[in-house]
Recover the amino acids of this structure.
């Protein structure tokens, strides 16, 4: 279907046409029909508002039109992209962007930095100067130039909304969907936002947004109103035709009454249930405004000095996933550096805890009388490393999910690119944290001065930290932060129980001993004891004040606690496998979470 015939052929104009759309969702009572056979046309150059009372199905319709919601959808969505080059839904998704209600901005970055990141992730072939020029252009047009150096978490609600729009404008998408862009904004910021959208629409874009009861002036700004009630369309036409439409259906809008308020009152049922009658009346074409709305002759007059005069940005192309990986890697690095709670504070805490535990277990390392206490020290150290690595990881995905969902859906990057960048930063960070803790506690607890053994211990402790963070990522992908913290702690307690200290391996039944194979903590403790007491370590020192030292011989100690098999490298291999496995599972779960709609 070609909806557009007389527009400038050099510039792609995309109209969206949908026909007989149904959306059914399952809930406890069975199937619930949320959208009930709606159809319509949204033209380029027009600013369309999807309106309706709360629960009418506005967001659901937007989710369906954007492709955000796939399951339970019936009907057809067409866009003249498909009729032009046959690339269908993929191309439609590429040409459109969806700005969700929550802004989900990179909080620790300035507006300028966030824009540059968006540019780097969505454009290729532009010099840095050209990118800066483009950013300047967009920020000027969106009145954001004065806050370009402000970090996103310091922006006002209206500024945040405009930054969300600015980030998507970088690659100049011809179709823009926005879910409640004025929610949370005051009257003037809301009007400013709608004026901006109108300006963008006039540059040739198809702009569709959901909106809650706008004031009369804002209502008139919209070219096209798509009114919904109870999952049906009860009016589609120009905002200026609303009063006439309602009058033709027998509802007379009082003078000085906001038509937007009046039509909502009518469709909500304040004057009786007339949904079916209005749904039928809404099929009439005559209420539609003169479409398509007049498009500026110069399509880039929104961006007067644009670096893309009369040229679509997609002709410049998208960067490779490798380049995006590098951009995301840098973003992760800057984020870690700027968030002092996940970098500087953690290093300080690891140092302090290392001092505290080192002093608590002072002189346990070489004292034959305190050999079993030393086993406690390694268990506590492993518990500490695993716990401190896993709990932040439990919160990692939930805290970034909003931004990840938005950016991934709008084709900024693929999930595996994001995941790889995040993981690459996580591992060296774990090694740094572990080194700070291990070195301090190792020296203070007076362990054997053998750097080879220390390095073996460090390797194991680092691997246990990475396993812990992998475990945390799995929990974070499965549960929300509250449930995740709870479930995570319970699972870790079970792992700790089978760690080989709270109950010695030699005191377990065969079955329970086999269960310890599931605990990566058991492997870490065993490997640590092997590293420190194995490999023909000379006899331990028995202090004079002790009457009898049972464990002068390290080999006897290892035998008595059931860790005498030389298994250090097996333990290392096991932990490496656990790290890989946990991360693969976390990735699959994250991908699944992002695709559930
Ligand atoms: N997963 C679901 N299971 C069952 N019902 C659902 C589900 N998701 C949405 N609904 C129902 O679908 C209807 C439409 O929801 P939607 O969010 O699209 O409404 P809306 O018009 O955007 O409302 P609001 O203006 O309040 O945001 C509501 O009645 C809602 O309760």
């Amino acid at each position: 279907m070609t909806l557009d015939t007389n527009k400038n052929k050099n510039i792609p104009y995309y109209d969206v046409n949908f026909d007989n759309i149904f959306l059914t969702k399952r809930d406890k009572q069975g199937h619930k029909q949320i959208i009930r056979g709606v159809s319509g046309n949204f033209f380029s150059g027009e600013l369309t508002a999807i309106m309706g009372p709360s629960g009418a199905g506005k967001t659901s319709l937007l989710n369906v039109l954007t492709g955000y919601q796939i399951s339970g959808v019936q009907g057809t969505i067409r866009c003249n992209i498909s009729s032009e080059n046959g690339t269908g839904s993929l191309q439609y998704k590429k040409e459109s962007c969806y700005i969700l209600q929550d802004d989900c901005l990179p909080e620790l970055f300035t507006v300028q930095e966030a824009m540059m990141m968006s540019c780097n992730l969505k454009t290729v072939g532009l010099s840095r100067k050209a990118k800066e020029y483009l950013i300047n252009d967009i920020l000027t047009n969106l009145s954001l130039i004065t806050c370009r150096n402000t970090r996103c978490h310091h922006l006002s609600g209206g500024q945040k909304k405009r930054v969300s729009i600015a980030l998507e404008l970088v690659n100049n998408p011809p179709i823009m969907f926005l879910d409640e862009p004025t929610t949370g904004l005051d009257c003037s910021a809301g009007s400013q936002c709608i004026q901006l959208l109108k300006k963008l629409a006039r540059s040739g874009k198809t702009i569709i947004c959901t909106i809650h009861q706008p004031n009369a002036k804002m209502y008139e700004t919209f070219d096209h109103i798509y009114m919904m009630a109870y999952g049906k369309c009860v009016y589609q036409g120009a905002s200026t035709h609303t009063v006439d439409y309602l009058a033709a259906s027998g509802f007379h809008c009082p003078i000085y009454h906001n038509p937007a308020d009046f039509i909502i009152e009518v469709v909500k049922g304040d004057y009786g249930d007339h949904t079916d009658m209005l749904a039928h009346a809404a099929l009439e074409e005559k209420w539609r405004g003169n479409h398509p709305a007049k498009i500026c002759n110069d399509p880039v007059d929104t961006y007067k000095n644009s670096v893309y005069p009369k040229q679509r940005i997609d002709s410049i192309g998208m960067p490779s996933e490798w380049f995006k990986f590098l951009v995301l890697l840098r973003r992760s690095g800057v984020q870690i550096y700027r968030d002092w709670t996940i970098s500087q504070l953690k290093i300080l805490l690891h140092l302090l805890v290392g001092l505290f535990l080192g002093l608590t277990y002072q002189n346990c390392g070489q004292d034959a009388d305190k050999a079993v206490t030393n086993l406690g020290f390694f268990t506590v150290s492993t518990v500490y490393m695993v716990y401190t690595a896993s709990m932040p990881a439990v919160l990692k995905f939930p805290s970034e999910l909003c931004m990840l969902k938005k950016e991934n859906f709008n084709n900024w990057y693929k999930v595996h690119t994001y995941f790889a960048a995040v993981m690459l930063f996580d591992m060296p960070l774990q090694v740094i944290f572990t080194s700070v803790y291990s070195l301090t506690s190792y020296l203070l607890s007076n362990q054997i001065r053998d750097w080879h053994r220390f390095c073996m211990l460090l390797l194991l402790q680092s691997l246990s930290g990475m396993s812990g963070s992998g475990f945390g990522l799995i929990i974070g992908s499965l549960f929300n932060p509250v449930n995740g913290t709870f479930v995570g702690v319970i699972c870790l307690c079970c792992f700790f129980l089978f760690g080989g200290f709270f109950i010695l391996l030699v005191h377990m039944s065969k079955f329970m001993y086999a269960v310890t194979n599931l605990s990566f903590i058991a492997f870490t403790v065993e490997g640590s004891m092997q590293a420190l007491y194995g490999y023909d370590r000379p006899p331990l020192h028995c202090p004079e004040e002790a009457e009898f030292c049972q464990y002068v011989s390290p080999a006897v100690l290892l035998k008595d606690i059931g860790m005498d098999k030389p298994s250090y490298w097996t333990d290392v291999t096991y932990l490496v496998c656990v790290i890989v496995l946990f991360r693969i599972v976390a990735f699959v779960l994250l991908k699944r979470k992002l695709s559930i709609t």
User: Anything to note?
Assistant: Residues 182 and 190 are 5 Å apart (CA to CA). The first strand starts at residue 16 and ends at 27. The chain is about 50% helix and 10% strand. The beta strands are 16-27, 30-42, 47-51, 73-79, 96-99, 175-178, 206-210, 224-229, 232-237.
